[in-house]
Design goal:
Keywords: Aminoacyl-tRNA synthetase, ATP-binding, Cytoplasm, Ligase, Nucleotide-binding, Protein biosynthesis. The protein is α+β, with helices and mostly antiparallel strands. It folds into 3 domains: about 290 residues, BirA Bifunctional Protein, domain 2; about 140 residues, YbaK protein (Alpha-Beta Complex), CATH 3.90.960; about 100 residues, Anticodon-binding domain (Rossmann fold, 3-Layer(aba) Sandwich). Helix content is about 25%, strand content about 30%. It contains 14 helices and 29 strands. Strands 3, 7, 8, 9, 10, 11, 12, 21 and 24 form a 9-stranded mixed sheet that branches. Strands 13, 14, 15, 16, 17, 18, 19 and 20 form an 8-stranded mixed sheet that branches. Strands 26-25-27-28-29 form a 5-stranded mixed sheet, with helices on both faces. α1 packs across α11 and α2 runs antiparallel to α6. It is globular. The two termini are about 30 Å apart.
Length: about 575
Amino acid sequence: MKQSQILIPTKKEAPSDAEALSHKMMARAGYIYQVSAGVWAYLPMAYRVIRKVENIIRDEMAKAGAVEMMMPGLLPADLWKESGRYESYGPNLFKLQDRKDREFILGPTHEETFTSLIRDSIKSYKKLPLVLYQMQDKYRDEDRPRFGILRGKEFEMLDGYSFSADQAGLDAAYDKQAIAYRNIFNRIGLEYKVILADSGTMGGKNSQEFSAPAAVGEDTIVYTDGGYAANIEKATSKFDGVQQHAALAELAKQATPGAHSVDEAAESLGIESNQIIKAMLYMAKMADETFQPVLVLMRGNDEVNETKVKNALDCLELELANDEQAKKYLGASFGSLGPVGVGEDIKILADRYLEGLVNVACGANDDGYHYINANRDRDFRVDEFGDFRMVQEGEIAPDGLPIKFTKGIEIGHIFKLGTHYSKQMGAQVLDQNGRLTDVMMGSYGIGISRLLSAVAEQQADENGLVWPDSIAPFDVHVIPVNAKNDDQMKVANEITTDLEAAGLEVLVDDRKERAGVKFADSDLIGLPIRVTVGKKATEGIVEVKIRKTGETIEVKVAELVNTIQILLKNNLQQAE
């Protein structure tokens, strides 16, 4: 391919709003073009990378027994109303109407659509198990699209779905997908972690997330050197609760003027912060659309993990109460809230670290006052204890090793949905005994377009992109230093013909640009191997540069094909 015939609009400067390395480099290298906020065009080079990623995915999906198909992106709202997600999904859902006022959405994911297909097509367990998948654009109305194509309103995604007659079938499909995902990310050349994750709006109870460590990542990965890994919303630490045995002291109310934080209250009362209950009031939207006030109690400065609370309540939404609601339900402002005297209309959850404490301090539900020597059962009730706190770096994980934090980009997620959708939407089959049973489902997703960002974040350098051999838009960049020099162009054309005959994809910079411009653009574009045809072309010698390492060697033209094949093979082996 001649570079003069392909659109690669390179730039010296990154867009002024670009924060992420991947955004800066892909924009500068002419891979992406912003059409509007959160909406991007994938220019020819990026499109070639995406197609190579898709081919890897197709190969591994076939090995896992999955079959590709395509659903529409425009979906009737009724399907999502049937599952309950039309309202619960939130403002990220694009909603629209056709000319006859029928309600539609732009699909952010396709659980409902595939469930309806199986419901209407499969009636017997004999037709199962079945794994279907597609690769198509998805739509989410992100409030703050950012980091280029990493978080946009439109993006390409693989979404796959397994359908089984029983739990064993679901487990087998899930395990095969987990292996396929590892193979896909290994072949692409990504560093990644497989972590325990929350299912969120997807439903179901079991899920694993595949996350690529990167400084720009919006997820926090909790991990240890022993292999434990979890999303921050799902992570837990080893429970080392303490059972205090002091005699119960008399409840007393004390003034704590100006004490709005745990540390300020501890100082005012002359006690340790871990002997204070922090009370946070939330409003939970339940399945019946009603709102339930919930008081969450934490030890000292521990932070509430709202995802864990939401899961414990099995609610649709969970939001921190505002000052007006705090006054309405508890009669005080945040900083003075506590569980003493709270009525049955407010559910009380407490973190497990509070269970063994006695004679604790807590807000008195009276601004500027705290109780001391408050004790569970005598002075206040707890409806449920559980793990409701955010873990902290340095704590001990369940595997006995210290917890570490890193940022990560979610690149894939697999879910055991069970009967979450099939039960609501009536997807049933006759089992071996002739009885109707709900279909067991799994859901599997890979953010295809964001894989480009993940690779760029991990492998780009100050000069530009560095693509792994497996997904690079071309294998080799051939650069004649002077396109007006007949000898150089002759050699460039000859080696291009030889390389292509050997099955390699070659980009030839035939532009009439200065050598410095060509080399700078070559580094920006980031192809694995660069072949420079310069002054020694008449001697049958060219220079080969490995983009990833910067290493250069002189090679005889007659040995070039063999040399490049060896270099690319070595690069692939190192990536594996």
